[in-house]
Specification:
The structure holds two protein chains of two kinds. Chain A is an all-alpha fold. Helices cover 75% and strands 0% of the residues of chain A. Chain A has nine helices and no strands. By secondary structure, chain B is an all-alpha fold. In chain B, helix 4 runs parallel beside helix 10 and helix 9 packs antiparallel against helix 10. Chain B is elongated. Chain B starts with a helix and ends with a helix. At the A-B interface, helix 2, helix 3 and helix 4 of A face helix 1 of B.
Chain lengths: 169, 213
């Protein structure tokens, strides 16, 4: 972005291409992959990034800035639609099926956070929150009581949330 | 249009952006607001004949110093409100510092005033008039700052409007302070702050209406 701001067309086009991929994932997960307006929103946001690039402060990280622009465009889109469009149930599979770079990065971060927890806690979190076992199933699997599982999951989530906050702040 | 084409077009239009262009435009808006407020205040209100004498006293400078300080803080807030994802921490600290400073001055002022004079110190002679005059003096700055801010990229419109209103109020009050005859810190702490905050409230209401881009 810095070189783009300085007028380096090559770097700038590289950045926009990369952003278009992220944006497609971002909007895709919220509107349903393959939504008709998806590409419009991506282009709209790219254009916004271009037109509003002077409001990017080089001292700040680039991603939050671009993310806020994308969010603004998305809210704008919802407002124009009048109400949040419902995703038909048959298409819901597509929502979860989308794999993309951004999601990969999120998953990697999650793995890092989980591995920082005690082994049993992270296994429980994986079972309950990612694999989708019920508390009872997780309890049976680990040989702990249900309430102990609940407490452990809760503590694990709290530790992770705190770690994310510390890393951000 | 294919996204690839769009990227090619945008990359072709990637002329360098001078850093700080947005900030400069915001500063320009403040100057326009200052001039507009000066025209309003000195055009409508009667001329002060004691101006040269009073200009040399400390209380005279206390008022514009406070409001200008306030305006500087609000300027930082507006600048960060116009930049998506920017943190407003510094602006907020400077703003709080201004409020603490004037509150301390006001407390000292009231403590040094004999108890039967305190109400006069607080109310002065223009308590009801002052906040209204500040709001009116802030109108030109309000318009100019809103236009400048809209050219940036505010994403939280009410909050951005609040910051813009405070900035306009600070600019308007700074001009009005030159005319105003009150000289006690207690008066400034209450009525000037009230006028500026009223501008902020108006700005917060206007924000979602006029700042959309």
């Amino acid at each position: 972005m810095l070189r783009g701001l300085a007028g380096d067309a090559g770097a700038y086009s590289q950045l926009l291409t990369l952003m278009s991929r992220y944006l497609r994932g971002y909007f895709g997960r919220r509107l349903g992959a393959g939504a008709a307006e998806l590409e419009d929103l991506v282009q709209d946001t790219l254009l916004t990034i271009h037109l509003k690039r002077e409001t990017y402060d080089p001292a700040q990280p680039f991603t939050p800035w671009a993310y806020m622009l994308a969010r603004y465009k998305l809210l704008d889109h919802y407002r124009r639609e009048g109400a949040r469009t419902m995703v038909p149930l048959e298409d819901a599979g597509a929502l979860f099926a989308t794999e993309n770079a951004e999601e990969g990065a999120v998953r990697r971060d999650l793995g890092k956070l989980l591995s920082a927890l005690p082994a049993r806690q992270s296994q429980l979190l994986r079972d309950v929150k990612i694999t989708g076992l019920s508390m009872e199933e997780a309890a049976a699997k680990s040989g702990m009581s249900v309430s102990a599982v609940k407490v452990s999951v809760h503590r694990g989530l709290k530790t992770m949330a705190k770690r994310v906050r510390d890393a951000d702040g | 249009m294919q996204t690839g084409e769009l990227i090619a077009i945008l990359a072709g239009a990637a002329e360098p952006v001078p850093p700080g262009r947005a900030r400069r435009r915001l500063l320009l808006a403040c100057l326009a607001g200052l001039v507009g407020a000066a025209l309003l205040v000195f055009g409508i209100l009667p001329f002060r004949h004691d101006f040269p004498r009073i200009m040399l006293t400390a209380p005279f400078w206390m008022k514009p110093a406070y409001t200008a300080w306030f305006a500087v803080a609000a300027f930082m807030l507006v600048d960060s409100a116009g930049r998506p994802g920017a943190k407003a921490t510094t602006g907020r600290m400077v703003l709080i510092a201004a409020l603490v400073a004037i509150a301390c001055l006001a407390a000292i002022n009231l403590a040094l005033t004999s108890s039967d004079q305190r109400v006069t110190a607080l109310m002065g002679r223009s308590a009801g008039f002052c906040p209204i005059a500040i709001v009116i003096s802030a109108i030109p700055a309000m318009i100019a700052v809103m236009v400048a801010l809209r050219g940036m990229a505010p994403t939280r419109l009410a909050r951005a409007g609040l910051a813009a209103g405070l900035l306009a109020g600070g600019v308007g009050a700074t001009v009005y302070a030159v005319w105003c005859r009150e000289s006690t810190a207690a008066f400034v702490a209450v009525w000037y702050t009230l006028g500026i905050v009223a501008c902020g409230g108006i700005g917060a209401l206007l924000g979602p209406l006029v700042l959309r881009w």
